[in-house]
Amino acid sequence: MFNAILIEKDADGYRASVQPVDESRLPEGDVTVRVAYSTLNYKDGLAITGKGPVVRSFPMVPGIDLVGTVEASSHASVAVGDTVVLNGWGVGETHWGGLAQKARLKGDWLVPLPAAFTPQQAMAIGTAGYTAMLCVLALERQGVTPASGDVLVTGAAGGVGSVAVALLAKLGYRVVASTGRPAEGAYLTELGAAEIVDRATLSAPGKPLARERWAAAVDSVGSHTLANVCAGLRYRGVVAACGLAQGMDFPATVAPFILRGVTLAGVDSVMCPREDRLEAWSRLGRDLDPAKLALIGSREISLAEAIPTAAAVLAGQVRGRVVVDVNR
């Protein structure tokens, strides 16, 4: 038996509770992991509260991130005793996830924990930090370098944005951070931002083309913000788009693409190929300053505390990452 958050939906309604679960109920997979830590992301908040159609089958164990030690494996590349990290792949949605003391998974979904990080630090990074690294890699693959010019990061005080600011600054880029929280200016400057801009300057409907300002951007906001980011990119600028905090719409024109040769590079963290995940985590181990990770901060909670905390995450009342110690 092991403890897990179990989401159930039946004639009595939708509910999430911590329950003892028999190991025989674990889903199919070729690797069994004794989970050390998980996280509480926005998507997990939607799953636990039922405020979004995240969970596709019931019962479900939420948790899109996990780190732990391999207890059993029939996968050629994963050995018993390995410490592994998982992000995405539909866990917590279609396959039981990390908010439990055990998980059974496909070995192809797992990557080794980088030596630079403890298990707790890996979850402080989580999907948000891993996605930020994927965005940086996307810019690099399009030829963006520190010599190219300023890089804008939208939603800069959020999970993806904070890590993106820290990574880009460490790599030598001049970072412009966009945020709607003026009080976070000092925090973003300490992470490495050279300039802070008010998100209000980007979030309203804008012109098809604007003054050329940035060589590249990391955008987790979408909607009018992404449209204005594209309109303000320099000739042959690149934006890595990974989120939709403002909305799923993209009210733009083709002008930036056909008149300035702008590139819109989509970044998906859920089904990203394993080779890219390995590269992203390896680069995080090299390029993410642990002191900046500590500055971004994380709050550690117990498995039971994850249920009431889910609503606070959805309400934007939690700053930094929420790490869940599933064994307390």
List strands and helices in order, with pairings:
Layout (H helix, E strand, L loop, with lengths): L1 E9 L2 E9 L9 E9 L2 H8 L15 E9 L9 E5 L14 E4 L5 E2 L6 H23 L9 E3 L5 H12 L4 E5 L5 H7 L3 E4 L1 H4 L10 E6 L3 H9 L1 E9 L13 H5 L3 E4 L7 H14 L2 H7 L1 E5 L3 H9 L6 E5 L3
Parallel strand pairs: 8-9, 8-11, 9-10, 11-12, 12-13, 14-15
Antiparallel strand pairs: 1-2, 3-4, 3-6, 3-15, 4-5, 5-7
As a percent range, the share of strand residues is 25-35%
Fourth CATH level, the homologous superfamily of the largest domain: Medium-chain alcohol dehydrogenases, catalytic domain
**For this structure, what is the CATH class of the largest domain?**
Alpha Beta
Beta strand count:
15
Computed structural class: alpha/beta
> Helix proportion of residues, in percent?
25-40%
CATH topology heading of the largest domain: Quinone Oxidoreductase, Chain A, domain 1
What would the principal axes of the Cα set say about the shape? globular
Order of helices and strands, N to C? Answer: EEEHEEEEHEHEHEHEHEHEHHEHE
Low-confidence stretches: none
Query: From the alpha-carbon coordinates, what is the Rg to the nearest angstrom?
Result: 20 Å
Keywords:
328 residues; alpha/beta; Quinone Oxidoreductase, Chain A, domain 1; 2 domains; 10 helices; 30% helix
